[in-house]
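It would be a great kindness if you could assist me with a short task in structural biology. I am sending you one protein, given as its amino acid sequence and as whole-number tokens for its backbone shapes. I would ask you to consider whether the tokens describe a fold that such a sequence might reasonably adopt. The full record is reproduced below for your convenience.
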Amino acid sequence: MATALPQRFEVSPPSLWAPLSMILLAGVFPLAAMGYALWQGAAQGEMARWGLAFPAGFVIVLLIGLLLLMRRRAVEWQNGVLCIRATMYTKRVAASELDLQRARVVDLEERTELRPGLKSNGYATIGFSAGHFRMRNGLGSAFCLLTQRQRVLWLPQRDGKHHLLLSLERPQALLDALRKT
């Protein structure tokens, strides 16, 4: 059944480790390395300090951008199309492309074969994965929006080689909405 207004499904918030790990990896470690380089080259004087100003500013702007992107998370169902927004990625999938008989709410700690493997074009840090990933055991590829691993909606596509993995507050509600079409 097609709907005029989009039906939104709440994405689970990521753990505190997701932004903290991004701050450490993309901010603190590079800035600490620059500070160490500056300390080692203290004899070079004023020129060395100004030489690191641009890279340090770039690191700070990049970190802010990455943290803001982590906040872009949405799942909507409208007119037979599922739209997933995850950081800088957007994926639209028609309900007719999904294998809803096999779709399940899974725990990725138990169903390890469904965990995303190598990142092919994605954004990932501790406790947060978004974008395109290769699946393990030759299952193909997955578009992920993962903020936790306990209640994940696994939506395989009919071709058997593409999957969606979504961390939602109420994953069964989306699955029920999809099955009603």
About this structure: The first strand starts at residue 7 and ends at 9. Residues 1 and 180 are 7 Å apart (CA to CA). The mean pLDDT is 91. The beta strands are 7-9, 73-78, 81-86, 89-94, 104-106, 116-125, 128-135, 141-146, 152-156, 162-167.
